[in-house]
Amino acid sequence: MSSIVVVGAGIIGVTIAYELQRRGLAVTLVDRDAPGKGASYGNMASVAVTEFMPASRQGIWAQMPKWLLDPEGPVRIRPAYMPKLVPWFLRFLAASRPSKLRELEAAGAVLCQRVYEDFDALLKQTGLTQMLTAEGCLSLYTDEAEFKADREHIDILERFGFRYEIIGGNAIRDLEPALTTKIGKAVLFPDNRSISDPYKLVTALFERFEALGGRIVQGDVAGFEQSEAGVSAIRLADGRRVVAEKMVLAAGAFTARLSALLREHIPLETERGYHTQIVEPGISMRHSIIWPARAFMVTPTAGGIRVGGTVEMAGLEAPPDYRRAKILVKRAREALPELNAERATEWMGHRPALPDTVPVMGPSAKRRNVWYATGHGHLGLTYAATTGRLMADLITGIKPPVDMKPYRVDRF
Ligand SMILES: Cc1cc2nc3c(=O)[nH]c(=O)nc-3n(C[C@H](O)[C@H](O)[C@H](O)COP(=O)(O)OP(=O)(O)OC[C@H]3O[C@@H](n4cnc5c(N)ncnc54)[C@H](O)[C@@H]3O)c2cc1C
Q: How far apart (Å, rounded) are the C-alpha atoms in residues 318 and 388?
């Protein structure tokens, strides 16, 4: 029986570990924390199959100056971090050429088109189908001008055959009575469903992994033992070692630190995001909502209503700035005037972000027994089941059902 170590017990690492263990490999997960305590803990719970567009697309460039100048805007770059961001930003710029954008859209769409096939299979096998809600997501617009500004998004969806439905006037309030009458138009994305509790999904999958015989070692990965044949063991900060025949690095936004120890550069940044979990919101909702012009999201979850979003570029070490979370709640109350945010908790997480928006999923270009799964950005929950399936195919020598070239680690 072949043995494999998966570093990182977020939604990506746990899903890969579960799938490999299910296929008969002996898998050891390694994480410095308990499973699911990274970005996967507090994301917006959305299976966001309609959000695969490259962040470097034209519509974003048009908004960027306004966003950056507004201290309450949806994108914030901490001044001290700007010089460190230059190489990533240059690659982001390179990813905005029209021909490149078409390629990146296709690479994201191909994954999103198979998300439910893979998610349904995973949730069915693990007895977790009840975690996927039935309702879609409403995208909100005050007026025609706001809708037009988001038209590029809808055009891309149309090109790839994703479903949407334009809704006007009172029909919006029929769907979500808590919404303000200021919203004059909405688009319903019926396939943009959500997970009732993303953290519970990770822990439940982890339990299923353990039940199949999977192991976990808690420890901080600090280095690797290498030979001609590749990586032979993982060294933990406390001196322990974990022997590895094969290894997958899936440590979220921290993966580039580990790949650097193998002399493999991945241009990974953290796009820090925030949520506020409102325990007694005073309203009820069925759909999640996004308001593109205000750049926030609200999702009804098992533990109350979650408000989140924002992109803060400030690296892996800077302390959270919870003013960002408060701005999002203020915006959400513009859409949901009766929302009561008195009883709430705040959270910050690190989205693993690559400059071209497309994740890295595949073998190392430098070490023959190492694979990477990282850079899932805003869509790590969405892509989790698909990543587990594709990575397990690659590692067990089965031809994956999609062309994996766009997700290569050495594409930059
Ligand atoms: C505010 C916000 C909202 C989001 N909303 C959505 C959404 O609605 N839908 C969606 O699809 N995605 C969403 N995302 C993105 C999604 O959460 C991430 O893409 C996903 O969680 C990444 O999963 P991961 O397993 O790669 O990383 P993580 O969950 O961060 O896991 C990485 C793990 O690696 C471990 N690790 C790191 N370094 C080491 C080391 N040296 N040694 C040992 N262990 C290590 C960490 O402890 C951690 O457990 C959102 C993210 C944020 C922040």
A: 31
